Amino acid sequence: MTNLFLRLSVLCAVLIIGATSCGLDEDNEWSGTWTIEKIDGVNFEVTDAFAEILDISVERSLTFDNDGTWDAEITTEGWGESVTDSATGDYSLDGSNYAMSGSGDIFLAVKDNVSLLKTGSFEDAGTWVRKGDTLTLTRNNGTVIVLKRQ
Question: What's the pTM?
Answer without folding.
Answer: 0.72
